[in-house]
Design brief:
The chain is an all-alpha fold. The protein contains 35 helices and no strands. The N and C termini lie far apart (about 100 Å).
């Protein structure tokens, strides 16, 4: 794209003063990147948190790049982002620095793509008809990109590593639109067909990558329709016909969800199941709740205060509730304002009003996947604003620019632009401060508990964080708070508290907690094993064996359960069956040090010293610091040496 087509050289003083330098594209790009780096410069050492553990730390599939070469893996809806996690793991394991560098790079590239996209929009037929477009193009893309890169509401999509799903999908989403705009703009001129084909093909490939990164990309074809309708002219059918490949690509998203249910019912039932993330919330409830949620998003974009990682869901059930119909009216008014801006903009050939309308439509359309009638377990998350915020910042910037009278614009805009930079620097400082809360798991969840004291998941994750640091008393308080708020919903809190009480050797309280847990989760294998262990500590061997048998009924080959049953039987004096359990445990887990040690002890009692030595050695080979096995090995070797010394 030619710089002359974007910037009005006549309207900008060519001196080297800062206000005028701000109109130069290269200088603007440098500022955008520097501001983004500064805002996130304190994030590189931030540890994994929340869903990072399920998707990255404990996800064995990302540890083998070859897994992603199989057709089954490509069928997964978030294939591209999972590949990026696998590449991170291949390069630096679980060191979070590389993951954060990757996320920040995505954010910077997306910010520059936003900049390029807005510049391209000013070259479309509808906006080019406004004589003021070159002047607007010299600073509006810069303003939108600055707000996008610096705003603290973006922290969850960037600093929270697993939300790369959102930021990477947004990158490909915006890239696809930018490339399509280049294709269409060049088609309106006389660009060589080869270059046109390259732009269109690259746009389609970016769309495919977006679709295979996250489901929010489902709206991309509709966004392309908006772009065609709002910014280009000509016969409708040929214009929309060229968008059909985007709809085909977007169909991969529902297809990937429908495929697992194929043949399991009629089409309507399959579609309903595929478009439901949770059955705990009805579509109607979710829709009503989202009116208020969207207003919260707008409030956070305007006033980014009170941010935290996990918002307590408040489900709304009736349209008559003020928290439903008041936001609904406000959102309808905002949509109507978008329609009004577009109609006035077309009538007056006003580029700013047309762009403002597009920004409003972008905001609502890009939110529609996660804020409509598809029930999602978590009703509100800050990272969901990452893609919609582009439209928000575009509208705000354009509407603010309309407040500058045209006849004094040439003198006032160079003075206003540094003010926008100062505002962005203020937002970047707020982002930096916000990121400081993410420095460790305790601080981020402690903040959440303070702001959402009724959120049991916040208490649970704070308890996990304390527990990981060895702060057992603090962890116990948070587990108890979780159980008090909603123990039935968070049975994991009971399980973890039971484990913590065992660490503290408070066996009676631990037994009570595990028994409560088993009322909710009666088939949990590990919990039944723990209860068997605790009853064994009490000397109630028959009850202990019953619970361990329950665990083995669920998992007959569970080495830990076999080991504990062997211990119980050994204490009952049933050495033959105890030995059989230890042998079976070692069959499924040859590195089970305690089972090998117990097997050796039984053999030692049976005077089978060489065999006992073999098992004690196995135990030490698996766990070199197994003190009991070491002592038993020494004792066995003395017994083996004693006949030889007596003979001498």
């Amino acid at each position: 794209m030619k710089t002359e087509a974007i910037f009005s050289r006549q309207s900008v003083n060519q001196s080297l003063s800062l206000p005028c330098m701000l109109f130069r594209s290269k200088f603007q790009i440098v500022i955008i990147c520097l501001l983004g780096v500064a805002a996130y410069s304190n994030t590189l050492q931030i540890e994994f948190v929340f869903d990072d553990f399920g998707r990255i730390v404990n996800n064995i599939t990302i540890r083998e790049l070859t897994f992603f070469l199989t057709p089954a893996s490509f069928a997964k809806s978030r294939y591209v982002c999972d590949v990026s996690f696998a590449l991170n793991y291949a390069l630096h394991g679980l060191n979070p620095v590389g993951y954060h560098v990757f996320n920040l790079s995505i954010h910077l590239i997306t910010s520059l793509l936003v900049y390029a996209t807005v510049q391209c929009l000013f070259q479309t037929p509808r906006l080019a008809s406004d004589s003021q477009s070159p002047r607007f193009a010299s600073y509006l893309p810069f303003c939108v990109s600055l707000l996008f890169v610096a705003h603290p509401v973006q922290t969850q999509a960037i600093t929270y590593i697993v939300q790369r799903y959102t930021s990477l999908a947004t990158l490909f989403y915006v890239l696809s639109i930018a490339l399509y705009l280049m294709f269409r703009i060049n088609k309106e001129t006389t660009m060589a067909r080869q270059k046109q084909a390259i732009c269109l093909f690259a746009s389609l490939m970016a769309a495919l990558l977006a679709v295979k990164t996250k489901e929010i990309s489902f709206t991309l074809p509709l966004m392309m329709v908006l772009v065609e309708y709002l910014f280009f002219t000509g016969k409708v059918l040929p214009r929309m016909g060229r968008l059909l490949p985007y709809f085909v690509i977007a169909s991969l998203i529902p297809f990937s969800y429908i495929l697992p249910y194929a043949g399991s019912g009629n089409l309507v039932a399959v579609l309903d199941r595929a478009a439901t993330e949770t059955a705990d919330i009805s579509r109607y409830q979710y829709l009503l709740t989202q009116f208020n949620v969207i207003m919260t998003y707008i409030r956070l974009l305007l006033f980014p205060v009170g941010q935290h990682i996990d918002y307590e869901p408040v489900l709304l059930t009736s349209f008559a509730q003020p928290a439903v119909f008041l936001p609904f009216i406000a959102l309808i008014a905002l949509l109507a304002a978008g329609v009004g801006c577009y109609r006035v903009g077309i009538r007056r050939s006003n580029a700013l009003l047309i762009l403002a309308a597009f920004g409003i439509f972008w905001f609502f359309l890009s939110l529609s996947v996660e804020s409509s009638i598809i029930p999602i377990r978590d009703t509100l998350f800050e990272h969901r604003m990452y893609l919609p915020s582009i439209g928000f910042f575009l509208s705000v910037s354009c509407l603010a620019a309309t407040c500058v009278p045209v006849n004094i614009g040439k003198s006032i805009i160079p003075a206003l632009l540094p003010l926008v930079v100062v505002l962005s620097m203020t937002l970047a400082a707020a982002t930096y401060v916000r990121n400081s809360v993410w420095q460790d798991r305790i601080s981020i969840w402690k903040e959440n508990v303070e702001k959402e004291p009724r959120n049991e998941r916040g208490h649970l994750n704070l308890a996990h964080s304390y527990n990981a640091r060895g702060m057992l008393i603090e962890a116990q308080k948070e587990y108890e708070a979780t159980i008090e708020l909603n123990g039935m919903k968070r049975p994991k809190a009971m399980y973890r508290l039971g484990q913590l009480l065992i660490k503290q050797r408070n066996y009676d309280a631990a037994l009570e907690m595990f028994l409560q847990y088993l009322v909710i989760m009666p088939k949990d294998v590990k919990a039944n094993i723990w209860v068997g262990f605790l009853y064994r500590e009490r000397g109630q061997l028959l009850v202990a064996e019953q619970y361990i048998d329950k665990a083995l009924a669920e998992e007959p080959h569970n080495a830990e359960a076999l080991y504990h049953r062997g211990v119980v039987r050994q204490q009952k004096g049933d050495l033959e069956n105890a030995a059989a359990d230890f042998a079976e445990a070692l069959r499924y887990r040859p590195d089970h040090s305690d089972a090998a040690n117990m097997m050796g002890m039984i053999l030692l009692r049976q005077k089978k010293v060489p065999e006992a030595i073999k098992y004690f050695s196995m135990a030490i080979a698996s766990v070199p610091y197994n003190i009991e096995a070491i002592n038993n090995l020494v004792a066995a070797k003395k017994l083996l040496d004693r006949p030889a010394r007596q003979t001498d």
